[in-house]
Specification:
The complex is a heterodimer of chains A (101) and B (167). Chain A is α+β, with helices and mostly antiparallel strands and 101 residues long. In chain A, strands 2-1-5-3-4 form a five-stranded mixed sheet, with no helix packed on it. Chain A is globular and about 45 Å long. The termini of chain A are far apart. In chain A, 23% of the residues are buried. Chain B is globular and about 50 Å long. In chain B, strand 7 and strand 8 form a beta hairpin. Chain B has four helices and nine strands. Helices cover 28% and strands 38% of the residues of chain B. Chain B is α/β, with parallel strands linked by helices and 167 residues long. An eight-stranded mixed sheet of chain B has the order 8-7-6-5-2-3-1-9. The chains are: A alpha+beta (101), B alpha/beta (167). Chains A and B meet through strand 3, strand 5 and strand 6 of A and strand 2, strand 4, helix 2, strand 5 and helix 3 of B. Strand 6 of chain A pairs antiparallel with strand 4 of chain B, so a sheet runs across the interface.
């Protein structure tokens, strides 16, 4: 199945935006993905093997965290996985970083 | 360095004015241009901006979040255009155009540009850009990033013409 890689992680997939990896479940696909591209593993998973909290994974248009079988969900070759890190922030308080310009 | 067209630069600032006193947010699509030699740093060249919705309706005046589902669609849109996500923008209503601890903690797109515009009393004031550099969560950092603004040829001609007329 096809896996779409976000910009920051493409340096670990030889610059590829889309990679094809075989597997019967989301878990199996991820296992194969990190065997083929081992440097991806630490960016996607914690040392305990859990998907990092800021890494979102979509199976077609569905967040895998909300699928009944989650990472155990069965997939086929025509499905697509998209890895998309979260985007958030805001002021919150007056603590800001270095002043530029 | 971040390179962006004047129209896109003005559009993202206008977005911040429209959503004031709440924060706006959006995505920068373009291409990362590799640096030449060892002395030239890579550049994020923005070719299109995409407005995004702020899902933090509970605290939109000081927080922003782009729904992952919307990001997936925007990434798909970028792919169709032959572009990549090269950065993001958001506004700081009545606060400086500097990254906050929250911005840093929740920044995960290494190599991407994070543009911040300060909005004071509804008017866009300063726009800064910060490059998220590093190799991972442990060593990431925001670096001040210069912004190169491209002015369209016809706009530049108009400006030159007007200046000539005033001379």
């Amino acid at each position: 199945m096809k896996i779409h890689i976000p910009t920051p992680l493409r340096s670990y997939t030889s610059g590829l935006e889309t990679v094809s990896v075989p597997g019967a479940t989301v878990d199996a696909v991820f296992q194969q993905l990190t065997i083929t591209y081992p440097e991806l593993k630490q960016h996607l998973f914690t040392p305990e093997g859990k998907l990092r909290s800021f890494v979102n994974v979509y199976l077609n248009d569905d967040d895998i965290r909300y699928l009944e079988s989650k990472q155990g969900t069965a997939v086929n070759d025509t499905d697509e996985l998209t890895i998309i890190p979260s985007i958030a922030g805001g002021i919150i308080c007056n603590e800001v970083g270095s002043i530029s310009q | 360095m971040l390179r962006i067209h004047y129209a896109d630069y003005e559009a993202l600032r206008a977005h911040g004015e429209e959503t004031y006193p709440n924060e706006c947010c959006g995505v920068l699509l373009g291409k990362k241009i590799a640096g030449e030699g060892n002395s030239e740093a890579a550049m994020n060249h923005v070719q299109q901006i995409v407005r995004a919705g702020n899902t933090r309706t509970d605290s939109a005046h000081n927080r922003y979040n782009i729904a992952p589902q919307e990001l997936v669609k925007i990434q798909r849109q970028a792919r169709g255009l032959g572009l990549d996500i090269v950065g993001f923008y958001h506004s700081h209503p009545n606060h400086p155009a500097q990254w906050s601890k929250t911005d840093f903690a929740e920044a995960h797109w290494l190599g991407c540009s994070y543009m911040i515009t300060s909005i004071e009393n509804g008017n866009a004031v300063t726009t800064n850009s910060f490059l998220l550099s590093g190799t991972g969560e442990d060593d990431k950092k925001f670096e001040d990033e210069a912004i190169q603004i491209d002015i369209a040829h016809n706009v530049a001609e108009t400006v030159a013409h007007n200046q000539k007329g005033q001379a």
